[in-house]
């Protein structure tokens, strides 16, 4: 459990803050880079403690992802086989309650990056995964990203005991947003639940949310879902048409395409 | 006027007649298909699909003017049909009316965002005009509506080399 004492040794720029007004759970933000070994940051009633192994000199940091998520980030250094890290935080809320969440991030043996980190893949693809929990006494979270010639997938998982809400998310995307695959699953309550998700590009076809599935430890399964945003699709195309229409018409009129070329547009 | 070798639809309903005509188109029997579609449009003059199919046959035969009339009528009858807009766009492209063509494709996407073909055509037009970035934006829109659609993904891969 994180202490609420004074900040221990470490970089002066380490920060943490909380805003508990939004609801039951405090909003926690912390940053501390590089992370040397163990650090406790205390500000405005929030304590954040990070404790990572010292196998490498990899950069490590803790930061807020959203209102209910603290992210632990560890980058595995080349040549190392395994390392782990954990972040524990507590927040004193306005109503006097305490909220606590703990993250433990572990690398897969072959060293893929973990929670919140990205893995750059060919074709400009980026695989990203994260796992989060609002409140949990023990949470293991990790993400793998892997690429073969035609296949990329990212998998994020959460194992939480006595978690209030546990969410795993995975995505594959590119910087332009052309490839987008994502899925998520959330589990409310329960003891000993786990959730995982896959999103990927397989055999040239994106098999993301539709194939996203969550498997809970006790044999329950929950399917992921695909968000089809027609409004966004139309907006993207509309903008492209508006922006490109004049130039396209000018170019085509200057150099009219052949009839077979025009036919090919509609093949 | 073509020389229809196929019998008129007779008692067959419009769907069957259209199916038969489209089968003729697939077999490359364009004149026969056109004749059949003309009879369909005569018998069911308010059915947009008949005019759309007639436009297709005319396109195959290189009869752009006939295609233009047929697709224009199809849109009059079904102004919210994305498919009609798409075929209309093809006709307009063949006639060299590129601005109207692009606009028709935009309308096709507005009306039928779940169809891949208009995205592909619009992207190819932008590519032909040297606007690869616009083409990719269009495909991006397509993949937003149709996640994982193979043709769109293939096109993105091709454009990105």
Compact description:
Chain A has 267 residues and is mostly beta strands.
Blueprint (SSEs and pairs):
The complex is a heterodimer of chains A (267) and B (161).
Chain A: E1 15-19, E2 27-31, E3 38-43, E4 46-52, E5 60-66, E6 69-74, E7 84-92, E8 98-106, E9 118-120, E10 125-133, E11 138-147, E12 152-161, E13 165-174, E14 180-188, E15 193-202, E16 205-206, E17 213-215, E18 221-223, H1 230-254, H2 259-265
Parallel strand pairs in A: 8-11
Antiparallel strand pairs in A: 1-2, 3-4, 4-7, 5-6, 7-8, 9-10, 10-13, 11-12, 12-15, 13-14, 15-16, 17-18
Chain B: H1 14-26, H2 30-43, H3 48-60, H4 64-77, H5 82-94, H6 98-111, H7 116-128, H8 132-145, H9 150-159
3D architecture notes:
The complex is a heterodimer of chains A (about 270) and B (about 160). Chain A is mostly beta strands. Chain A has 3 domains: about 1-110, no CATH class; about 110-225, no CATH class; about 230-265, no CATH class. Chain A contains 2 helices and 18 strands. Chain A has helices at about 230-255, 260-265; strands at about 15-20, 25-30, 40-45, 45-50, 60-65, 70-75, 85-90, 100-105, 120, 125-135, 140-145, 150-160, 165-175, 180-190, 195-200, 205, 215, 220-225. An 8-stranded mixed β-sheet of chain A has the order 3-4-7-8-11-12-15-16, with no helix packed on it. Chain A has a 4-stranded antiparallel β-sheet with strand order 9-10-13-14, with no helix packed on it. In chain A, about 45% of the residues are buried. The model of chain A is unreliable at about 1-125, about 130-165 and about 175-230 (pLDDT under 50). By secondary structure, chain B is mainly alpha-helical. Chain B folds into 2 domains: about 1-100, Alpha Horseshoe (Serine Threonine Protein Phosphatase 5, Tetratricopeptide repeat); about 115-160, no CATH class. Helices cover about 75% and strands about 0% of the residues of chain B. Chain B is built from 9 helices and no strands. In chain B, helix 1 runs antiparallel to helix 2, helix 4 (about 65-75) runs antiparallel to helix 5 (about 80-95) and helix 7 runs antiparallel to helix 8. The radius of gyration of chain B is 17 Å and the shape is elongated. The chains are: A mainly beta (about 270), B mainly alpha (about 160).
